[in-house]
UniProtKB/TrEMBL annotation:
<comment type="function">
    <text>Catalyzes the phosphorylation of pyrimidine nucleoside monophosphates at the expense of ATP. Plays an important role in de novo pyrimidine nucleotide biosynthesis. Has preference for UMP and CMP as phosphate acceptors.</text>
</comment>
<feature type="binding site">
    <location>
        <position position="181"/>
    </location>
    <ligand>
        <name>a ribonucleoside 5'-phosphate</name>
    </ligand>
</feature>
<dbReference type="GO" id="GO:0009123">
    <property type="term" value="P:nucleoside monophosphate metabolic process"/>
</dbReference>
<dbReference type="InterPro" id="IPR033690">
    <property type="entry name" value="Adenylat_kinase_CS"/>
</dbReference>
<feature type="binding site">
    <location>
        <position position="79"/>
    </location>
    <ligand>
        <name>a ribonucleoside 5'-phosphate</name>
    </ligand>
</feature>
<dbReference type="Pfam" id="PF00406">
    <property type="entry name" value="ADK"/>
</dbReference>
<feature type="binding site">
    <location>
        <begin position="100"/>
        <end position="102"/>
    </location>
    <ligand>
        <name>a ribonucleoside 5'-phosphate</name>
    </ligand>
</feature>
<dbReference type="GO" id="GO:0005634">
    <property type="term" value="C:nucleus"/>
</dbReference>
<keyword id="KW-0665">Pyrimidine biosynthesis</keyword>
<dbReference type="InterPro" id="IPR006266">
    <property type="entry name" value="UMP_CMP_kinase"/>
</dbReference>
<dbReference type="GO" id="GO:0005737">
    <property type="term" value="C:cytoplasm"/>
</dbReference>
<dbReference type="GO" id="GO:0006207">
    <property type="term" value="P:'de novo' pyrimidine nucleobase biosynthetic process"/>
</dbReference>
<comment type="subunit">
    <text>Monomer.</text>
</comment>
<dbReference type="InterPro" id="IPR027417">
    <property type="entry name" value="P-loop_NTPase"/>
</dbReference>
<feature type="binding site">
    <location>
        <begin position="53"/>
        <end position="58"/>
    </location>
    <ligand>
        <name>ATP</name>
    </ligand>
</feature>
<feature type="binding site">
    <location>
        <position position="209"/>
    </location>
    <ligand>
        <name>ATP</name>
    </ligand>
</feature>
<dbReference type="GO" id="GO:0005524">
    <property type="term" value="F:ATP binding"/>
</dbReference>
Length: 231
């Protein structure tokens, strides 16, 4: 091969390498964006907390209809993970049956995936954070601070009545597990509500009232947020 052709070949090889290296960087950047943390995507998060049976899921469905949020229930995500046959399935199932809180790492991964896969930018996160570990780890991993915390306040007596009548075939809606869940709520979840209270973020709702009346109070909270944003 003439020397000239060899030089040309070498030059085109080098150019191809530079091009590939450049494209690699572009692809890396695109991947980083796709897999990036939930905070990189501008997200509004409202935590929906309250004891088991206080009406979180019921009211979240109403909020979705009226205010365009996406509802992410930590409990629903964990139950879906059991059904999917994941390697964590048995561990999650055992913890739910005992009313215990699943390690944050597992729940946060599910929440983060759901946020990133969704086109919406505002989320109701229902039943999370349920303890201090949930709260701190979510903040650390996602860097997301909740806009506010909707807290459904209801007596144990009323919550117990509702859970025993829920009829969704849940393995944890039996009196033995319900008592354990109430204990976990008082000992581990209420301190999280108190933490956000100290930051002025809690919007407390009287959840013992009928569904429609509770939703009137919920609407007032979201309307006030929208008015504040428009001002
Ligand atoms: N305000 C309410 N009054 C009476 N029953 C309610 C009320 N809100 C919800 N329920 C019923 O109570 C049960 C528990 O509600 P749910 O929304 O699943 O609560 P949570 O998600 O907080 O456990 C359901 O059967 C639901 O239909
Ligand atoms: N952040 C969370 C939320 C739920 N869970 C588990 O899932 C169970 C059911 O949660 P849920 O939010 O669906 O229950 P409800 O409060 O809606 O009745 C809890 O009792 C926990 O065992 C958890 O481990 N961590
Ligand atoms: Mg629920």
């Amino acid at each position: 091969m003439p020397l000239y052709d060899v030089k040309l070949l070498c030059r085109s090889f080098v150019q191809t390498q530079i091009y590939l290296a450049f494209m690699g960087t572009v692809v890396d950047a695109a991947n980083k964006e796709a897999n990036g943390s939930a905070a990189e995507k501008k997200t509004t998060v409202v935590f929906v907390l309250g004891g088991p049976g206080s009406g979180k899921g019921t009211q979240c469905a109403n909020i979705v209809q009226h205010f365009g949020y996406t509802h992410l229930s930590a409990g629903d995500l964990l139950r879906a993970e059991i059904k999917s046959g994941s390697e964590n399935g048995t561990m999650i199932q055992n913890m739910i049956k005992e009313g215990k809180i699943v390690p944050s790492e597992v729940t946060i991964k599910l929440l983060q995936k759901a946020i990133l896969e969704n086109g919406n930018d505002k989320f109701l996160i229902d039943g999370f954070p349920r303890n201090e570990e949930n709260r701190a780890a979510f903040e650390e991993v996602t860097k997301i601070e909740p806009e506010f915390v909707l807290f459904f306040d209801c007596s144990e007596e009323e919550m117990e009545r509702r859970l025993l009548g829920r009829n969704q075939g849940r393995e944890d809606d039996n009196i033995e597990t319900i008592r354990k869940r109430f204990k976990v709520f008082l000992e581990s979840s209420l301190p999280v509500v108190q933490y956000y209270e100290s930051k002025g973020k809690v919007r407390k709702i009287d959840a013992a009232k009928p569904i429609e009346e509770v939703f009137e109070a919920v609407k007032a909270v979201f309307n006030a947020k929208d008015e504040k944003a428009a001002a």
